[in-house]
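Hi F.,

I've been meaning to write this up properly since the lab meeting, where we talked about keeping a consistent format for the predictions we share between groups. The idea is simple: the sequence comes first, exactly as it goes in, then the structure tokens exactly as they come out, then a line or two of notes. No screenshots and no reformatting. I'm using this chain as the first example so we have something concrete to point to.
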Amino acid sequence: MNVVIQKLNGLWHLIVGSCQIRTPFLDTQDRELVVTYARRVYPGAKIFQRD
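Output, unedited:
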């Protein structure tokens, strides 16, 4: 499973397949918090960042 992390409208979002999931993190917060969150929610997934 691939998970893409993207900043959109002031928040970090996770994109899993065709679903876009809003996270509780603002885009000013560190990306590592979002990566940790994504690994906890989707264990074993490959995490990518899209600018």
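Notes:
The CA atoms of residues 10 and 28 lie 8 Å apart.
The helical segments are 31-41.

If this format works for you, I'll send the rest the same way.

G.
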